[in-house]
Design a protein that fits this description.
- The chain is of the alpha/beta class.
- 44% of the residues lie in helices and 17% in strands.
- It has 14 helices and 14 strands.
- It has an 8-stranded mixed beta sheet, sandwiched between helices. Strands 11-10-9-12-13-14 form a 6-stranded parallel beta sheet, with helices on both faces.
- Helix 3 links the parallel strand 5 and strand 6.
- The longest helix is centred in the first third of the chain and has 22 residues.
Length: 374
């Protein structure tokens, strides 16, 4: 079977959905399928290339940043992708299409379906679902008709979590099935560690208000003030909030205790999971967090926001801790200190974190779910 995966972001461009696209493509490839990816060009990343047996086609999209994209870039991708998709379908004899995001990916898939009658599916990722991003309320409303046309003609629509499925079904009158994200359990795995002599908080992801990384720094400050423990924090990622976070660290004399490391190679991120005490991930919303899955696979307990998507992954006192996103930093800090000072609890959480993802979230299992859904 030949699959065309449509996503305007694909590594090294983009964030969580890009990573999911690459891993799913690899999973489908391992299962004997041919996979073609249609994505955005960026600087020297353009044209057609073979990446580990996957054909990656990058089209012009006026992309100016690796990790950020706006309406103009999405519109450019739709235009370029829609022009090329029918030719790709004919050249590679595409039999199935999987679009990430209802818009822009679903738009290209719908056009291809109109031109070639090739069945397509839409994988909702979070920001494309009305209600997840309050600042996009008008955008969602304007595109309601387009979005519903895309979903109506899809073979199936999936969401990576039950919470996102419910949100989509509230917004649009169409059934959505749940297909989770996966994680590479061979790449992300525990190292020889305990709960560590030094308390290290880890944050991985886009530095965006939605991710609430500022709360991680407030927790660090509370730990140091309340317990006297010389805790540190590593912030891996970049985005529009970085300057504000750096100013906060300087203002509260944390600049010697927190390192802003930008985007790192995946091998360095994997090493960071293995060397940290906890992952702090108190975001306002998620589709299904790749970061949390990677941390759990690495045996790292996770401190996360009590939102439906995270509640599907985190079982309190078993593989992590859950808090209301509006919870005070001091309360979360106290819980982290308690975990740090209880090595037996930390070790048990670490083991259960790893066991959970091995059973439920391998990418080969996820690829099989997509195949069967068609």
């Amino acid at each position: 079977m030949t699959y065309l995966l449509i996503n305007y972001e694909y590594p090294p461009i983009g964030a969580g959905a890009a990573t999911a696209s690459k891993n799913l493509a690899a999973g489908l490839r391992r299962r004997g399928n041919q996979v073609v990816v249609l994505t955005s060009a960026y600087k020297h990343l353009c044209g057609v290339s073979d990446e580990e047996g996957i054909t990656v086609v990058r089209v012009p999209a006026w992309r100016t940043s690796v990790h950020r994209s706006g309406i103009i870039q999405m519109a450019a991708y739709i235009f370029s992708g829609a022009r090329l998709a029918p030719r790709l379908a004919q050249l590679y004899r595409v039999e199935r299409v999987l679009a990430f995001f209802s818009i822009p990916g679903g738009f290209v898939a719908r056009w291809l379906h109109y031109r070639r009658s090739i069945p397509y599916a839409v994988s909702l990722r979070g920001g494309d679902v009305p209600g997840t991003e309050p600042g996009l309320r008008l955008f969602y409303k304007i595109l309601t008709g387009v979005r519903r046309n895309i979903i109506r003609h899809a073979r199936f629509v999936s969401a990576p979590s039950a919470g996102l499925k419910r949100l989509s079904e509230l917004a649009d009158p169409f059934t959505v099935q749940t297909i989770p994200n996966g994680v590479d359990c061979e790449y992300f795995k525990p190292g020889p560690k305990t709960n560590h002599s030094a308390l290290t908080l880890l944050s991985v992801g886009r530095l965006h208000p939605q991710k609430k990384v500022l709360l991680t720094l407030e927790i660090l400050r509370a730990i140091r003030d309340q317990s006297g423990i010389p805790a540190t924090a590593r912030v891996i990622g970049d985005g529009p909030e970085r300057k504000n976070l750096e100013k906060f660290a300087q203002r509260h004399h944390l600049d010697g205790s927190v390192s802003f490391e930008g985007w790192l190679a995946s091998c360095d991120v994997a090493a960071a999971y293995r060397s940290a005490t906890v992952l702090v991930h108190i975001s306002r919303y998620e589709g299904m967090s790749n970061t949390i899955l990677e941390a759990l696979a690495s045996g790292l307990p996770v401190v996360a926001s009590r939102i439906p998507e995270n509640m599907e992954l985190i079982e309190p006192e078993r593989n992590g801790l859950l808090f209301d996103p509006r919870e005070s930093a001091s309360k979360i800090a106290a819980a982290i200190v308690n975990l740090y000072q209880n090595p037996e609890l930390w070790t048990r959480m670490s083991h259960e974190a790893r066991e959970q993802v091995e059973v439920k979230y391998s990418w080969d299992r996820v690829a099989e779910m997509y195949e069967n859904s068609f």
